[in-house]
Design goal:
homodimer; 62 residues; 6-stranded mixed sheet
């Protein structure tokens, strides 16, 4: 499968925020995420970097 | 492989912008993209939506 895990980058560390993310919709100052299991979260902040080959999404507080 | 194609959404249509995207780094008002083949592009605009299961990134001009 081609989902990715979303992490929050803070103080040089990455903390898991949501596993197996399928959908991401950035909006003003926040990001709507939905995963394979139908779990939904809204992160206040922005996308720092995405690496699809590493299955990794890194989010960051503003 | 788990790369995705990036499309530009315009007037209700989606036009292919970059195939086989691996890395995406959003910055102020633009998005840096790099694909599997080392091709790099900078898109002026924002991410509209990402669906990893569909291998699809949709970008939008501001």
């Amino acid at each position: 499968m081609c989902e990715a895990n979303a992490y929050i980058y803070k103080d040089g560390k990455e903390e898991l925020y949501l596993e197996s993310v399928d959908i991401m919709v950035p909006e003003e100052g926040k990001i709507y995420l939905k995963n394979l299991f139908g779990e939904q979260k809204v992160f206040i902040g922005k996308i720092k970097e995405i690496s699809l080959l590493k299955h990794k999404i890194v989010l960051e507080n503003k």
